[in-house]
Amino acid sequence: MRQNIHFVTKYINNFKIAQNIKLNSEYFILELLCPEKLSEILPGQFVEVLVENSSNTFLRRPISIFDVNYENNSLKLLIKIIGDGTKKLSELSINSKLNLIYPLGNSYSLPNCKDVLLIGGGCGIAPLFYTAKFFKNYNVNFTLLLGFREKSQVILQKEFSELGKIFYTTDDGGFGERGNVLQHSILKNNNFEKIYSCGPEIMMKNIAIWAKNKNIDCEVSLENLMACGLGACLCCVQKTKSGNKCVCTEGPVFNVNDLLW
Q1: What's the predicted TM-score (pTM) here?
Q2: What are phi and psi of 170, to 5 degrees?
Q3: Helix (H) or strand (E) holding 160
């Protein structure tokens, strides 16, 4: 896989809802069937979702791709209910339609080192699932470290555990180790050569600082507001060392050395 690939061809299609899986009061998964053969989707890419019948949702919503199944010609989106738009998505019924623009953005790069760490928090675990699955196909040795506020927020344990080594933190210590992800003992006992992260910005900024201090290469997936996904609206612009860049087209994945963090 080339590093940070940009796709010229984008598609827009009405996907059919195959499953709407409620994980807890906040999170759910939509499994979507594509009406035509899926194009190649790389880890870290996302879709822009059209939310219909929502009076407060005027723009498309960017959602990370959680998983892809080329045999079933389907993809999955892990979504957190935040506002009216995501609530409407959580209410979609089986066989109803959902319009997507896809695949959007660049991707995490394929590592050329032995020991890799994937760190996620909250809904930021979504792109890391497909990334871990993708890396596994390339025999990359990786460790997953996921952080949540509390035990009730921990989701998809079985699915993640089937991918490889996984560790957890919760703020209150109700599941896994107590504290945030950077306080986990796994960071003291291993010499990771590459880090991939997605989650709250404050978490990724702290990971970036830690990685730089340890001289570890680190890529993060930013979650800026992205209304169009095509670089036209400019609402997702991120300041970098080489000027302003649209997260939706030149990201969402950036090396932390390129960011003004």
Answers
A1: 0.92
A2: -135, 150
A3: helix 157-161
The separation between CA 193 and the C-alpha centre of its own chain, rounded to angstroms, equals 21
Show me where the domains of the chain are located: 11-104, 115-258
Query: Could you tell me which CATH class the domain 11-104 is placed in?
Result: mainly beta
Tokens of 123: 């809904």
Rounded CA-CA distance 6/10 in Å is: 10
- Report the 10 Å Cβ neighbour count for 155: 19
**Phi then psi dihedrals of residue 189, to 5 deg:** -110, 5
**175-193 pLDDT per residue, tens:** 999 999 999 999 998 889 9
DSSP 259: B
pLDDT in tens, 131-157: 999 999 999 999 999 999 999 999 999
115-258 folds as: Rossmann fold (3.40.50)
Find where tokens 């993060």 sit. Answer: 220
Backbone angles phi, psi at 151, to 5 degrees: -55, -40
